[in-house]
Amino acid sequence: MYGKAFAPEYQGALTSLSVNSSLVDVLAAGIEQLRAAERSGRRDEQARCQLAVAEAHRRLGRVAEADRAWKASYRTARAAGETAAMAWALWSGGTLARQRGAFPLARRLLAVAAELAERGGDVVARGYSLAGLAETGRIQGDYEAVGRLHEQLLAEARRRGEARHTVWALEGIAQMHRNTGSYDTAYALFEEAAETAARAEDRRGHAWALRGLADIVSVRDGDTERALALLSEAEVSCRAMDLSSALAYNHKMRGNVLYRAGRHTEARAMYELALSGFRAMGEPRGEALSRLGLAKALARLGRDRAETAAELADLAGLLERAGLRHTREMVIRAQAEFGVGAEAVR
What we know:
There is one protein chain. The protein is an all-alpha fold. Helices cover 82% and strands 0% of the residues. The chain is built from 17 helices and no strands. The chain has helices spanning 23-40, 43-59, 63-80, 83-99, 103-120, 123-139, 143-160, 163-179, 183-200, 203-221, 224-240, 244-260, 264-281, 284-300, 305-322, 325-337, 341-345.
């Protein structure tokens, strides 16, 4: 049985904040309480407030501000001798590194975070740090290495009755099944994630689950209108909570759904919207996926074949260097789809 979802990254004076709080509100409260903690000289409370500020900035797509805030949280926690708070700060930094496409740095930070969390006796921080490592591997396409870790973390979250982490694990496992063609299994897992998130009032997790369901409904069933309706429902939560990254991925998925339906002009517009969002927040993986979708839509709309070949070749090289194997395989399939593979490797 799961209770109401909570946000363990909102700590100390900020524990009253909901998992569904607008990120603009989280940022304002975090800054206000940080100033109060600075006036009182409480370093432990300063570190907790800086963590919330870092996470609000990160989810709003403000990379430079997030980077400064998590580092400040870590330094303050270290000065205060707060091991668990150090772990949370490194978790935030590792998550930001993954978002920026710095995968080796993300793994290093998250591994140290997990170690510090265990040393500090914070089982939730440990779980979040291990989840970050699992998600980093999954995004890079290393399913064999991280599949078991996802399952382990799902079992732990269920045992603790922690809805938010249960939803995260279900969605990660579902995405791996979707990417390997097991659509029915993926749909069932996304559906369970959506139901669990709804019962726990986790709007962020629910929005991501709806996005996953929309993808399956589109690619497996060809039901464009239902897929678009699911994405519209998810978008309401993304906007209410100022979830910049989730909103950009929602727009990118809407582009995918429209592209599959042959509505290439509409797809182009959505890919362009997603691309501008990802570029504004410095999220290279989302940018690459949007560029891929846009290149395919433009090719269908009559773009010069040589331009398509050059764009896909550039993307393939970028993704190879970034270590994003699954996304690079998508580019290779696009090269085959448009018959530009030979030009791409020359």
